[in-house]
């Protein structure tokens, strides 16, 4: 069975980049040293670089196959709960009776046992993803367009974030990302309190996976609906907005810009969606003034 490591989530790790590489290199489950040729003005030099690991993870619910995702093999317990929630298979942590994560021929098998009501709901709407889920796509293997949309959900309106809270979270998030600092190959999703302090974070090679892991961690800790907001270090596509909405997250901040579909999805659910402009200013895409401004532009 894979050796699973637990980071000190929400605790700042005071490491320089070189030290971060050394730190994560000790955890061979999530990273591997690779010999590379450095090509520069001094000619070719053989060196060693730490690269992030990725492993296929197959989900089986009560013996029924559902999906295969490429994942960083860490925090897999959180991934099981978060993925199951955002896929619409469970509604709360107690819907999972038990689960077992095992290593099988270099792949991860997540065997999940659902309680009877959840199993019935899963089988009634079961869709098997026919393709392997890539780390970059949250919709791979979906067979029909009707499977893209989840049931409509309206979130409770939250108080606007302060610019200082957003700036503080973005300024410090990398301090909590040893895998990213060491490999330059990982995304992160963080839970931030309304003062801008990072309370929890998860990393993964896949941005969807990182968000699922964060959602799963908070679901398992019964803190999913606590005060604060979610920060993602990637762009906000439709799938990222949909996952946040499925988890009841009322405010999402993405470091990179959202897509138009993500904005429409957030607006329809009442989720506040923030991002950064090219010059680093904070943008709120989903308030009434934004919609009115767009209407004025179209009228001119």
Strand content: 25-35%
The helix/strand class is alpha/beta
Major β-sheet profile: 6 strands, mixed
Going across the biggest sheet, name each strand in turn.
8-7-9-10-11-12
Number of domains: 3
Task: Note poorly predicted spans.
Answer: 1-16
The ordered H/E elements are: HEEEEHEEHHHEEHEHEHEEH
CATH class of the largest domain: Alpha Beta
Q: What is the helix content?
A: 25-40%
Q: CATH topology of the largest domain, what is it called?
A: Cytidine Deaminase, domain 2
Number of helices: 9
Question: Which whole number gives the mean pLDDT?
Answer: 84
| Shape by Cα distribution | flat
What are the main properties of this structure?
single chain, about 300 residues, alpha/beta, Ubiquitin-like (UB roll), Cytidine Deaminase, domain 2, 3 domains, six-stranded mixed sheet, four-stranded mixed sheet, 9 helices, about 25% strand, flat, disordered N terminus
Furnish the topology, listing elements before pairings:
Blueprint: H1 17-25, E1 31-40, E2 43-52, E3 55-61, E4 64-71, H2 76-86, E5 96-104, E6 107-114, H3 116-124, H4 163-172, H5 178-183, E7 187-192, E8 198-204, H6 207-220, E9 229-232, H7 238-246, E10 251-254, H8 260-269, E11 272-276, E12 282-284, H9 288-299
Parallel strand pairs: 3-6, 9-10, 10-11
Antiparallel strand pairs: 1-2, 3-4, 5-6, 7-8, 7-9, 11-12
